[in-house]
Amino acid sequence: MATDRYAAERAVLGDDALKRLRQARMLVVGAGGIGSEVLKDLVLLGVGYIEIIDLDTIDLSNLNRQFLFQKQHIQKPKAHVAKASASAFNPDVEIVAHHANVQGKEFDVAFYQSFDVVLSALDNLATRRYVNKMCVAAGVPLVESGTAGFLGQVQPIRAGHTECYDCTAHPTPTTFPVCTIRSTPSTPMHCIVWAKNWLFPQLFGEDDEAGDAELDEAAKSGENAQELENLRCEAHQMRALRTELNDTPHDAACKIFAKVFDVDIQRLLSMDDMWEQRTRPTPLTLAAAREDTHAPEQTEALKDRRMLSLADTAQLFLDSTEALAKRAQSSSVPLAFDKDDADALAFVTSASNLRAHVYHIPRKTQFETKQIAGNIIPAIATTNAIVSGLAVVQALHMLAERWDAMRMVSMARHPARAFTTFPPAPPNPACGVCNDMYLVTDVRVNETTLGDVLEVARKPTSEGGLAYDEDAEVSIADGARILYDPDLEDNLGKTLADLRVDVGTTLSVVDEDAKKATVQLLLHAGDAKAPQVRWPGGRAEEVRARRVVPKPASDSESDVEAIEAPPPRAAVPSHGRKRRASDAGVEVPAKRKVSDTTDAPQGSSEDAAIVLD
Ligand SMILES: Nc1ncnc2c1ncn2[C@@H]1O[C@H](COP(=O)(O)OP(=O)(O)OP(=O)(O)O)[C@@H](O)[C@H]1O
Ligand SMILES: [Zn+2]
């Protein structure tokens, strides 16, 4: 008799729930630490159809916690490998993988609406906010999750009923993405992490023999031979230099300088596709660094708060490398970074600043470096696994429409109470994302003019318009770019294509008097020249029900005029002159920021205010 892989699940969830799971469609955004765990959980549960999106490729540093990936997958797209690895767990599940940026235009509101639940497993604020906004626009439930060291959090979001991700302000995370550390840093933090977590242990910490053996094994499998060979070569060179540090510390320190700031950078530069979207680094020789004795003007009295010249930074690197090498030689245990160890801090400060210089990134003082280096939080596989499980539980509640069962969950390293759960709060009336109205708008960008869009804004709802009064001061913007306002009429005759507005763009129609909510037109390719406005999914009632401010009883059910304005946002100075269309090409700050949350109050719950990675 064939075994039923779902027997246990059926016993726990029941027949109906299992059937629903088998028919469910879920989207996982991000295939990193949390995303690969979530994917594995969903596949094992037997969710019928899953799509996964990730823009990145697999890095060596991912392998300690992203268990769908192995050595032979280095440099392959995370989404594709995650699909291949997870598919093997359950052949009943269909997975579609996208190696792409989730902010790409192909992932429009209709795409989101094709899913029952979206699970966000991202590592940055901007993309989290974007996915949140798309889910609110599409009216699709979202499970947001994040971890920082031993802390974790899961937030179920149901548009119009619960807080969205943007209802509370989020501090800029002090944690960091590790995968960009080895080759493509873009912030001072990346450089500091590289110096502290990679270079320091390579030279003075635990010797990584095992890592090299693993590289040998991966090379045997024939995958990514060239990059694996490079990594192995780098590891061997570093080990040789580490040995040399014992005998001739000064010469070895100079060679290490040449290797990490010049030779290795030249090797990376030869990989052209790596630099298509990024600024190319500039290799730095010791001789060139020594020539640059210019120190920025500064008034700081304390030495560690002053910015050193490049020459002094290079000297600090050589001195601290020599000092640490001597200590490592006489120490019975490998050295570990300690921000209060002067040599270690000098090493990390100088190495990270030299790397920052190479990558055209601002440098940091020793004082700043100490603060940043002391704050780095490692990603922990167990936290990711637990948070992923909690996220999937929320997704199951959503799928079963057990809305009352949804819980925010905060996880902390607390012996008495590891988890704190509470029902999600209602939407914040000051949240731009929750207050804005989202309408899918069919256009033909080569024929539809901005005037056509304005006409639709003025038309009554019964004729498919937005019902703005003839005398209402309306503006139309593409992000921060204002295309039309009462002082800027030159663009009205231009097509959307002329204005560099493509399908996939969101145009914001803003009522200057703040009497109506901002309307977001999600542009979609249509058949007619005149824009056709549709409520997402044709579910007008549902969308209307999502309004934060209750509708007055007298308003007609079918009238968009019933959309009340959110609480007034920042006052807008009026313009003294008519602006020309040529002005419009220039990015100007939006008069009223659309969906801006900077004025949103801080999270109402202390528990909810953890920094998400
Ligand atoms: N705009 C985006 N589109 C698609 N995927 C994204 C986007 N932004 C981030 N991601 C993905 O989200 C995932 C987040 O996973 P995680 O936090 O574990 O980061 P990581 O890069 O795998 O690990 P680490 O940053 O700790 O090295 C990453 O795989 C990253 O590529
Ligand atoms: Zn909100």
UniProtKB/TrEMBL annotation:
GO terms for cellular component: cytoplasm; SUMO activating enzyme complex. The keyword Nuclease does not apply. Residues 11-432 form the THIF-type NAD/FAD binding fold domain. Transmembrane segments: none annotated. This is Ubiquitin-activating enzyme E1-like. InterPro entries: ThiF/MoeB/HesA, ThiF_NAD_FAD-bd, Ub-E1_IAD_1, Ub_act_enz_dom_a_sf, Uba2, UBA_E1_SCCH, Ubiquitin-activating_enz, UBQ-activ_enz_E1_Cys_AS. Residues 544-613 are annotated as: Disordered. One of its GO terms (biological process) is protein sumoylation. Pfam families: ThiF, UBA_E1_SCCH. ATP binds at residues 30-35, 54, 62-65, 78, 123-128. It comes from Malassezia brasiliensis. Keywords: ATP-binding, Ligase, Metal-binding, Nucleotide-binding, Ubl conjugation pathway, Zinc. Heterodimer. Pathway: Protein modification; protein sumoylation. Zn(2+) binds at C164, C167, C431, C434. Belongs to the ubiquitin-activating E1 family. Signal peptide: none annotated. One of its GO terms (molecular function) is metal ion binding. Residues 253-370 form the Ubiquitin-activating enzyme SCCH domain. The active site is at C179 (glycyl thioester intermediate). Gene3D superfamilies: Ubiquitin activating enzymes (Uba3). Chain: B, domain 2 (1.10.10.520), Ubiquitin-activating enzyme E1, inactive adenylation domain, subdomain 1 (3.50.50.80), Ubiquitin-like 2 activating enzyme e1b. Chain: B, domain 3 (3.10.290.20).
